[in-house]
Amino acid sequence: MASTSDIRNGLCIKFNHDIYKIVEFLHVKPGKGPAFVRTKLRSLTTGRVLDNTFSAGHKIEDVRVETHTYQFLYAEGDEFHFMNTESFEQISLNKNILDAPGLLKEGTNVMVQVNTETDLPLSVDMPASVILEVTYAEPGVKGNTATNATKSATVETGASVNVPLFINEGDKIKIDTASGSYMERVKE
Predict the structure, then answer these.
(1) CB count, 10 Å around CB of 76?
(2) Which of 68, 80, 160, 164 is the most exposed, fewest CB within 10 Å of its CB?
(3) pLDDT tens per residue, range 34-68
(4) How far apart are CA 56 and CA 29, in angstroms?
(5) Taking the CA of residue 166 as centre, how many other CA atoms within 13 Å lie in the half-sphere pointing to its CB?
(6) Around Cβ 51, how many Cβ atoms within 10 Å?
(7) CA angle at residue 128 from 27 to 167, to 5 degrees?
(8) pTM summary value
(9) 129 with 110: CB under 8 angstroms?
């Protein structure tokens, strides 16, 4: 058993007969009344996100997890296939377990959290950012750069990302996997 002081991002807990991963949390200590922890939980079975507030000192049941490095092999419909980089064992996971399936490029290494009691994969932690090539982008209009104007661009995985006007087809860009937003252009 853990308490609310042990809450951190990525912690897996049992809550309402399901296993949830803590996506965000905030410890709040108001001037009046007891402290509490406001959390955003994502179900690892359905992918549904819910907000919940735990009172300070509330006991939560955590789930023991192990983290293993897996390499993304390919996608087939809603199933994504991964290979353990140590044992070469292959697993397939549903699309709703992944945080940003549209940004996953073949050969990318990810961290898979596995429940130690049942040996079932719980969640997939993507790298903080990925570098992808732009396959389609509308040409930028000259003189339209007075503000932070953006345009939609398609990257090699098929995902659509808003980028600045100076990005062209063939450019490699760095994308934040948590928000799916453009970070910078990568020079080679």
Answers:
(1) 9
(2) 160
(3) 899 999 998 877 778 899 999 888 888 888 888 89
(4) 9
(5) 9
(6) 9
(7) 125
(8) 0.72
(9) no
